[in-house]
Task: inverse folding
């Protein structure tokens, strides 16, 4: 996609199952040990978004230059962060990346962007489930997100299904050699794999 887009790091989670803030988990990146948030912002910068934002509270160490969107919906999970970002971005497309996907690479995100159309985003699928935390959403998805939030339905699978029905998003099956990029860190056990 050659259209300008906003990239948002979804970093508003409470990290309950991990037992500590995932944003500060150490990862090896370009020969250094850095906090996970730093790696993820580097990945997003590498794909040259028109604007780069973080969805969630401002955390220690974030560059002062980074725009941070605190969630406007309490305890609504990632859907609240996506809706907040869609409401505040200046571009027509929003690429989201969850903080806890430590193996994602810029090439995978470029592939997502390449599958987008002018007013239609894209979401990968793995094992017959949408992967909505590394996806591209059109700004037009905002209305559907708000309607779902008002109903108290925070399930992202439902959100993406509604976007598919409204032809605002398409999907594709993740290739086997890319599946490891979608592994996420939710519990301390995940850090050992």
Result:
């Amino acid at each position: 996609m050659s259209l300008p887009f906003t990239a948002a790091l979804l970093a508003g989670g409470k990290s309950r199952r991990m037992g500590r803030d995932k944003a500060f988990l150490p990862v090896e990146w370009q020969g250094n040990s850095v906090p996970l948030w730093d790696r993820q912002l580097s990945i997003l910068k590498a794909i040259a978004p028109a604007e780069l934002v973080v969805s969630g509270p401002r955390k220690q160490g974030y560059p002062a230059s980074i725009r941070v969107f605190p969630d406007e919906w309490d305890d609504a999970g990632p859907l609240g962060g996506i809706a907040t970002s869609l409401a505040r971005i200046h571009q027509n497309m929003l690429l989201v990346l969850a903080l806890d996907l430590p193996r994602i690479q810029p090439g995978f995100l470029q592939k997502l962007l390449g599958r987008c159309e002018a007013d239609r985003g894209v979401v990968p699928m793995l094992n017959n489930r949408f992967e909505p935390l590394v996806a591209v959403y059109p700004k037009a998805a905002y209305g559907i997100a708000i309607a779902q939030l008002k109903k108290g339905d925070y399930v992202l699978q439902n959100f993406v299904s509604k976007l598919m029905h409204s032809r605002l998003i398409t999907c594709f099956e993740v290739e086997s050699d890319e599946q490891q990029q979608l592994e996420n860190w939710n519990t301390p056990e995940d850090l050992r794999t």
The longest strand covers residues 93-98. The domain at 6-177 is CATH 3.90.550.10 (Spore Coat Polysaccharide Biosynthesis Protein SpsA; Chain A).
